[in-house]
Write a structure and sequence with these properties.
The complex is a heterodimer.
Chain A (H helix, E strand, L loop, with lengths): L1 H5 L9 E12 L3 H7 L6 H6 L3 E12 L3 E6 L5 H8 L7 E6 L2 E2 L5 H11 E4 L11 H12 L3 H14 L15 H13 L5 E5 L7 H18 L2 E6 L2 H7 L2 E6 L2 E6 L1 H6 L4 H7 L4 H4 L2 H4 L1 E2 L5 H5 L3 E4 L4 H10 L4 E4 L5 E5 L1 H9 L6
Parallel strand pairs in A: 3-8, 3-9, 6-7, 7-8, 12-13
Antiparallel strand pairs in A: 1-2, 1-4, 4-5, 9-10, 11-14, 13-14
Helix pairs in contact in A: 6-7, 6-8, 7-8, 16-17
Chain B lengths: L7 H27 L5 H4 L9 H14 L8 H25 L2 E3 L5 E3 L5 H15 L2 H16 L3 H31 L1 H16 L2 H12 L3 H25 L3 H9 L4 H12 L1 H17 L1 H4 L6 H12 L2 H27 L13 H4 L1 H17 L3 H4 L10 H40 L2 H16 L1 H16 L3 H31 L1 H16 L2 H12 L3 H25 L3 H9 L4 H35 L7 H10 L3 H32 L4
Antiparallel strand pairs in B: 1-2
Helix pairs in contact in B: 1-21, 3-30, 4-7, 5-6, 5-18, 6-16, 7-8, 7-10, 7-13, 7-15, 8-10, 8-30, 9-10, 9-29, 9-30, 10-13, 11-12, 13-16, 15-16, 16-20, 16-25, 20-23, 20-25, 21-22, 21-30, 22-30, 23-24, 23-26, 23-28, 24-26, 25-26, 26-28, 27-28, 28-29, 28-30, 29-30
Classes of the chains: A alpha/beta, B mainly alpha.
Chain lengths: ~350, ~675
Amino acid sequence: MSDNNARDPDGGERSVKLACEAVWKVFGPGAEAFLAEHGGQVGDELLASAGLIGAVRDASLDVYEGEIFVIMGLSGSGKSTLVRCMSRLIEPTAGRVVFEGQDLLAASEKEMIEIRRHRMGMVFQHFALLPHLTVLGNVAFPLEVQGVGRAAREKRALEVIELVGLQGREAYYPRELSGGQQQRVGIARSLAVEPEIWFLDEPFSALDPLIRREMQDEFLRLQNVLHKTIVFITHDFDEAIRLADRIAIMNDGRIIQIGTPEDLVVNPATDYVAEFTHDVPRAKVLTAGSVMTAVDGVASQAMADVAGRVTADTRIEALAAEVVNADKPFLVIGANGQTLGLLTREAVLAVLVGGNRVR
Amino acid sequence: MSQAATGVAPALAWRSPWLAAWALMLAATLGLWLGKDLWPWVVKYPRGWVVPLKGWIGDFMKWLINDFDLGLFTFKEFTRGIAWVLEWPQWLAKGLLAKGFKIPTGEDAFWLTPTLSWLGLVVVLSLLAYRIKDRTLALLIGFCFLYLAVFGQWDSAMITLSSIMVAVPLGVAGGLALGIQGYRSPRFERAITPVLDLMQTVPVFAYLVPILFLFGFGPVAAMIATMIYATPPMVRVTLLALKTVPEEIKEFGRMAGCSRRQMTWKVLVPAARPTLMVGVNQVIMLSLNMVIIASMIGAGGLGHDVLASLRRLAIGEGLEAGIAITLLAIALDRLSQAFAVTSPAGRHGQEGKGFVARHPYLIFALAVLLGATLLGLVVPGLRDYPEAGQVTTGPFWNDLVRWININFFDQFEAVKTFLLLNLMIPFKRFLLQMPWTAVVAIVALAGLQLGGWRLALLTACLVAFIALTGNWEKAMITVYLCGISVVFASLIGTPIGIWAARNDRVHKVVQVAIDTIQTLPSFVYLMPVVMLFRVGDFSAMIAVIAYAIPPSVRYTDHGIRKIPPALIEAARTSGCTRRQVLWKVQLPLALPEIMLGVNQTIMFALSMLVITALVGTRDLGQEVYIALTKADTGRGIVAGVCVAFIAITADRLIGAWARRRKQQLGLE
């Protein structure tokens, strides 16, 4: 399972790469003054009565070094606005955006240009390739803007083009490529400057389902090699589950819940979240740890009579066949080998068969 | 736009109070007219009240030219300095194409360098066409330029071409610069928009006189007039093109860390290139449109030939020179359009080769041109097209006209008299008797209903200006001629547009036809009309109608084709016949677009009307033309601005209506 490798296994203390603190983006005349006047906390009705539109409301989140952080929401939920606030493509109305300890909102335009040139990369939904440049020209473009010489930038561009599997197409123009290939160019281009943080704004939404799937695999493969810090925007919950280390769910400009895919499925914070998780194939999300019967509920002699051992973070999907075919339960152990509980055939069957609540 | 929130339901509720207001207005107008003996001033604007604006402008102009001192030099020296700078590129182009360069070889002797060989140019241009598009275009270009040679138009055409070659790049660069500035600064955009409106609606004749004063008589002054006329669309297209670059591409540019300059030149302008090329095409076409008018202040070339023949009523010669302009226009139009769609594709794997290997066509073309020109030193037939091979159809056209006039005079005369007596003259009388106060009020009410009090105020002021400056009667004659022509043009153009929209084959034919018609310089329309109907309002009307039909066809066709196919399918599924689909779905939905076509028709009609002053109308056009011949700056400008104000009033009212209707239909 490639996606398991992309996850941080131990959930230990990790450094925060990028943090949003109470970020607001309110459209309308006098939005800033209005927010300041109300101490940065405004209800929906109050905003509406002032004729303002809150695209992002009081969003706070931390993106950890090396994780894939997915922001999931339907159209109009403010997810695209939020990701643009992170790079100040859109100027937030209030709040703080902290990137590696530096407050981006306090940075001058010149500093922002430097940060964007060297430390950020972004992939766009509709690829945003420059129609007048070849694949090579497009990928080398961010380096060209920095003033890197032709030979050096083309050498680097060729490297990234090869990384995304487009070697041989350097001299093609964007319109001569399929959608999937175009997005590979977009990905290569955003990686050319070796960004520290990588924003992907619905990168696969404009692609056909089959290609989308292929590109998701490709994306996970790349992340396996690169270990970037990633903010990934999507409206597709399945995609979020598939790719994310953690997911933030947005609705009406607010972040409703942040958690691992499993958290969301097991403990949806609101009915809104539950709506999404409802149809998720549980076996793909739940781990042995969340389905097992804990140690204290099992008689100790039962613990000895097991068919085998599994670690707590193994997905049910990966062990289902084994557990169902065995006539004894499996022992669930933690990261340090300590015994945590028992995984029974009935529990696994319940996950596989019962579409609804586990337990 | 203040009615943005007006939904369908309020619009219905609105109707009855507006109906009442209009009834009231009708009654008031009638009342004013009946009371014309009591208060003559409400009907006819008193002469004593006329603001002597034209005098003021004339005095200002005199002061500017004679007394205005910028310190180191006078204003006139400044403008003449500009003219001197602009003369150099013209001298270069003309030297190459038309006149050759004088190289002194002794005291009074000089050697005249050869001009580029006609055959060389024909070959090279065809080759260029083949390179950027296909063989059809190459043949077309070859044909157009061969015509110039065979019909003895080559020398004049090269003079015209050389001034186009200078005016177009300058116009494009200027338009691009202004457009970029407008894109960057909304305030600048707001400031130039009304200036552009005026530049596009004030008839060219009106600013010929001041240009003449400031820059002197000659090709440079003509070129400046051409640029003033041809640049505004480039500014507008640039603004539009930059605004419609996809938001994501702009965001990408910012994420890549582009500076403002990098953003403009590396991202926005290249990404907007296809649209920008539309602007370049517009500049070329308008420059060619100006060729004849520009020759009034010394451009020379084909324009001069046409004008001279028109004055002598030498129809055949004029027609040949006119066709030469048209062919030049068609050639340049198709070439620039082909440039717009071609892109540097198909060059995979050419990196690393030498310059010669990468540009075989360019090298070959230069070699042909140079070779033919040098060979021309020995073989005169290569240098100038041999006179023995020249053809003229002039006598044929003259005879044809004579024959038509002899055989069909009565029929033409009958139609002309009938329309004049039963339609044109009554309408003219009606308009002339309308109280000017009532017209101002009617326009204001229309503005209020369609766009709110701002529009009402604007249109009322524009119309009142015409009365204030003492041009009321001439303006009413303009409105009458324009109105009648527009009605006819729409009656002819709209059905053709509908037909073209519903039949793909017709669509193709019509497209080619109106594309060609639109490349004809407006003067060309005058010639056959004058030949057949002689001078007068009727001739003017026919010429205007012929000139103004294309936009009506184009917008109707486009408006109907733009309707989402799902709506048509829905109508079909509900059992509509083709006729019902047309009347109940297509036409109502396309109506806003059709009205925009009418709007364009009005604009075309007004610009043509000024030119028809040459065939003896008594409207504002004539006023402008008289001012031109008398070199009366103030009179020309004021009358020109009046024409512009009529155009702007119509444009704003129709535009407001179409916008509102589109919103109601949910089309925007």
